[in-house]
Each structure stands twice: as structure tokens, then as C-alpha cells.
Predict the structure.
Amino acid sequence: MLSISEVSVLRTFRKFYMEPGEMLCFNGVDLATKTPALDSLVNKDFLIREKFNGAFSLTRAGYVKMRHTT
């Protein structure tokens, strides 16, 4: 089960048609407010934290979850 904020993050990835391994950058207030959800999705192996600050990419499992999240 995903939290509302985790679903919001996955919707952001879907909005930009992201696929596994493609990097999406969050910054400013968006990064500050979504950090807990981003961290949680990393822990659930749905996202990978990239070296660039605020950058994340979907794992294959994250991509599947994103596609099935409404």
C-alpha cells in the first residue's frame, strides 16, 4: 500500500512519461515537500537515488507500480 504522497510522486513520473532508468529531477519546494515520499519509494526499491542532488529514476518495479497507480 502506498501513501498519498508516494502516489503523488509516482504520478509526477507518469506525467513526464518516464521509463526505468530515466532521471527526473526534483528541486526547491517540490523536493522539500516530497523528500519523505521519495525516501520511502527508494526504500521500497521503486526508485533509485541518482548522484545529482534531487534526481531519481524508476526501477522496473517502480515503473510497473507507476503504471498501475491511479
In short: The beta strands are 23-25, 47-49, 55-58. Helices lie at 4-15, 28-43, 60-67. The two ends are 13 Å apart (CA to CA).
